[in-house]
Amino acid sequence: FAIGLMGKNELAPVVGKVETNMPAEIAGLRSGDEILSINEQKIQTWEALSQTIAKSKGELEIVFLRDSKEYQTILIPKIGESKNLFGEKIARPLIGIFSSGEVRLVSYSFVDSISYAFGQTLESSKLILQSIEKMLSGVVPLSEVGGVVSIVSITKKASELGIVTLFAFTALISVNLGILNLLPIPALDGGHILFTFYEMLTKRIPTQNTFYRLSMAGWIVLLGLMGLGLYNDILRILNGTMPF
Q1: pTM of the complete model
Q2: What superfamily does domain 2-106 belong to in CATH?
Q3: Tens digit of pLDDT for each residue in 159-179?
């Protein structure tokens, strides 16, 4: 919420390059055009532009700014091959434009900041759950797990980039801890919720021995993850890949 009010540096929705024979070129978009809205939805950042196109179905009515004048065009995205955050190849709607790389400070009103905060929290939560899923399926290697040293290193780097970046990283860590705490592992709150549901459904309370064994198993999992993170941190330090 505070980040939305203070403002955050974001890639501007300004076109840098237009691919030939793609919907954007056919619709008349050029390098330097600034996208103002898509299907009457206001666009303030390149991320919002990308997400809107990715979720689109059918025609897109695009309003853009060129030489201080507003223009409008209609195009239909082309389904093409892209890559997600985990490096997997996916099919998604594309219009054939690239960012100009222009960065702007984007801030929101009090009301819009509430919506912005909710949306960012939701997206972060989904990303964390997807990361866990990809790690369990082997898409993301276990070597990507970081420990305390990684957190301290990234926090230091974030603080050097400014207070807003530090706030954003702190918020991400808070969401991460909240989501992980709800996982159905006996040693965590999610495990206690699972036991409560079990009691509600079966009308029986788990025996002390069962509770003890499951709790110990949960702690073994948690300590194993902590050990893995610390091990990866030490390897990064030895290999010189840990940013300090």
Answers
A1: 0.70
A2: PDZ domain (2.30.42.10)
A3: 887 787 888 888 888 888 888
